[in-house]
Every structure is written in structure tokens, then in C-alpha cells.
Amino acid sequence: MSCGIPAPGAVAELVRLPAVLSVPGDVLLGAAASGQARDVPRSAGLVAASSCLYLAGMALNDYADRAVDAVERPARPIPSGRVSPGFALGLAGGMTVAGLLLATAADGPRALKVVGPLTAAVWGYDLALKATAAATPSMSACRGLDVIVGAGAHGAASALPVATVVAAHTAVVTEISACEVEGGAPARAVAGLAATAALTAASAALSLRASRSLPRRAAALGLLGAYAAAVGGAQAGAVRDPSPAGIQRAVSAGVLGLILLEAGLLAGTGSPAPAAGLATLWPLARRLARRRNVS
After folding, report:
1. Tally of domains within the chain
2. Position 1 in a domain
3. pLDDT score recorded for residue 2
4. Rounded CA separation 291/295 (Å)
5. pLDDT per residue as tens digits for the range 274-290
6. pTM for the complete prediction?
7. 39: helix, coil or strand?
8. CATH number for the domain including 65?
9. Are 213 and 284 in contact (CB under 8 A)?
């Protein structure tokens, strides 16, 4: 087993580095929904904080799963010996502290009213809830709370509709991912496909209600259509091919497709610049994901 500092590539694999590009949209969406999108320094600091907590959760995930991975996924960084369990746990702890400090610097002590519960949700999911019936709700809560981080406790009420959409999308991806090792569960992919169609419709309704600008409405609907095509297309593929590889493609598309979903919602809320910037992350994330797994 590795006992020193692991290679950068092994650490990037441990934390599913390309998937961190799905994080900025959470904060930007929450900030836009609560009318705080113009406070760029605040949003940038909270994006950094949220990204740290996401990376912490990924490292903690593999630390918690190391015994299972030794049987099911022996090539992963910890069971393969490229990363030690102690390093993974230490990285999770360090990134968590960094996230809390960055959030406090960006939005003051009041940020802890949301970032504190988010941190507890991340650690609770990885260490206690992942193997229970509460797995999907707890993972969904993590992502929904991440949207609320952008809004802050003082703006949480206005961000609840979009946070609910993001949490629901996360629930769909989490349910499908439950069979990505053994495959053979097309019913999950069918349910996921139906849920993605419903989420696309709900997101379109939110975006159209939020803006009367035809260009912004068109941008929102275009991005949401791209989300439906990317995520729904992969889920349809998993229906036809419910092998582990087919399911993993659907999970990967769901993880990265959140970028398009949130870009569409941002465009509809009247934040075209952040929406455009966020949308450019999707092709980059897809390219990076071809080299490093995000599920």
C-alpha cells in the first residue's frame, strides 16, 4: 500500500476531478435566485468553498468504500495501493476545513448556517447513510443544500424551487448509480428517463415564468433541450443496454448533465452571462471525463 504522497493522477482519480466542474452552477443558481448574482466576490468565494466540500466528499466516499471497492473495483486508487486510506481521510478533512474557512471569508459567519448543515450532510452520507434506505434522500439533500449555499440562509426561501429541481435530478442519478457495478436493472433507467423528462418540463416552466425576455427564454429552452438530449439519451441507452458499462454511461451523463440543467435555469432567471459561462464548462467536463471516471 502507498504510504507517502500519492501521484497527482491518483489523487485526481480519487476525487473524480472532472466532476467538480458540476459544482459552480449550484452556487451561481442559488445566488441568482436570491438576487445576489451581482456580488461576484461573494459568489466566487462560495464556489471555491463548495468545490472544496465536493472534493472532500469524493475522497471520503472512497475512504468509506475501501473494503467494498477491494472486491468490486480493485483498480480504484485506495484498493490498488496508489492512495493510502489515511491520505484519503486526511484530504477529506483538510478540504472540509478549507471549505468552511472559504465560505466564512466570502459571506461572513452567517454562511455557516447553510455550509454547516451541508458539511454534516456530506460526512453523514459517506460514513453512515450511503448503505441505508436514506442514501438517495441524503445525497439529494447535499446537492440541494449546495444551491442554498449560494442563496444563503437569508435568501433560502427564494432559491427553494431551483434547489428542489437540482435535488430531484441528483436523486435520479443516485438511483441509477445503485446498479452501475452489476448492471441488469433497465427499470431504473426507464424511471430515470421519465423523471428527466418531467424535470426538463418543470425547469422550462420555472424559466419561462422567471423571464419575459424572448432571447433569454430561447437560451433557457435551448440549454434545457441539450440537457434532456444528453442525459435522457444516455438513460435511453441504458434501457437498451443495461450492462454495467451502459449504466455507468448514464450515471456519467447525469453527473455532468447537471451543468446544462443549471445553465438553463440560470438563463431563465435573467442571468445570461453566468449561464453562458457555465454552459462552456460542459464540453470541457466531457472531454476530461473521457480520461477520468466521474462515477
Report:
1. 1
2. no
3. 46
4. 12
5. 899 999 999 999 999 88
6. 0.94
7. coil
8. 1.10.357.140
9. no
Question: Is pLDDT above 70 for 26?
Answer: yes
Q: Determine contact, residues 125/142, Cβ cutoff 8 Å.
A: yes
Give the separation between CA 63 and CA 156, rounded to whole angstroms.
32
Range of the domain at 154: 11-289
**Cβ atoms 150, 31 nearer than 8 A:** yes
In a domain, 3, yes or no: no
Query: What pLDDT band is residue 24 in, cutting at 50, 70 and 90?
Result: very high
Distance of CA 65 to CAs 57, 207, 210, 245, 295, Å?
12, 39, 42, 20, 13
Other Cβ atoms less than 10 A from the Cβ of 1: the count is: 11
Distance, CA of 138 to CA of 121 (rounded, Å): 7
> Quick one: 240 exposed, middle or buried, by C-beta within 10 A (0-12, 13-18, 19+)?
exposed
Query: What is the number of alpha carbons within 13 Å of residue 166 lying toward its C-beta?
Result: 31
Q: Is the pLDDT of residue 1 over 50?
A: no
